[in-house]
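Batch manifest line 319
LIGAND: adenosine-5'-triphosphate
JOB: complex structure
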Amino acid sequence: MNPKQIELKAFAKINLSLDVQGLLDNGFHKVEMVMQQILLCDDVSVCWAPSEYKSGIDILLSTNKYYLPKDARNLAYKAALLMGDEFSGSDGAAWVSGGTVKIDIKKRIPVAAGLAGGSSDGAAVLHALNRLWNLNLSISELCILGAKLGSDVPFCIMGQAAANHNLMTGYKDDPLACHCALATGTGTELRPIKGLKSHLVLSKPPIAVSTAQVYKGIDTVEIPAHPDNDALLDALEINHRETIKKNMVNVLENFTLKSYPMIVYTKNKIQYLCKSGCVLMSGSGPTVFGLCDSMKEAKYICKQMLKDNKESYWTRTTW
Ligand code: ATP
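JOB STATUS: finished
ARTIFACT:
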């Protein structure tokens, strides 16, 4: 049987706002945040080679970054394992029996950056195997699977359905295919909303920030200001920049800016250079982004940021 292959773009996200509203019964933090897809992406290629003689699924993962795990610690590998558990088997009811899934990731999104890079790779593998195995799962069904991998995965699934040309045909009437969403609960309850059209500069200080530690840390500090997400949604609807700026608040900064001076430095420098003054840490950090009025401005600020942080990029939101 012939192998089949699909290439997908696994886009990064930024948080235009991030609020933490206490703890849920399951011990996770209750969040309310606006997630926006951006053009910076990894290239994920997935090849399926079925075998008549083999039962079970083999998974082979390659990537251009030597330091990324290539086994079950990689979210893309985990996604293939999950799909195998759900849909493969030797009985007649299974969708696929034996074969090999080959995954190649060309990584561009900085790792452990607050940009959901790993989650997006995982989401791409779910989409890919849905196609290669002819499962015909809806976005909503893929999101239920994705939530088992991580809380950012469902948003990445929705965004990829909207922004990958080779996926779009199947989802063009599905409102869940979107570039921007309000996320509540643990971040997996998603409502599509109108997104932001903007050029961007991103800069990741050369430090590692543990998401778990940041969420633990946030319980120990004062949160003087929360974003008004209702106002932010209204402002996005009419592109009212001043209200957008006022509500671009990430409460996790109350912990990270105290604990990591490099994030403060990066934020201050972008704030100084960015005419819009809209500058925020994404997710649990450490990446800081600024909204720019033009590609020219984004490129210029990026050049200045590269002097301090070699992981600095100019890009834009998707729409
Ligand atoms: P989020 O914003 O969803 O918290 P992040 O941008 O902070 O994500 P990732 O880039 O997803 O973080 O990486 C977090 C950790 O996950 C890293 O320690 C990395 O080794 C591991 N990881 C597993 N799979 C991947 C992958 N495909 N790409 C990047 N990191 C991965």
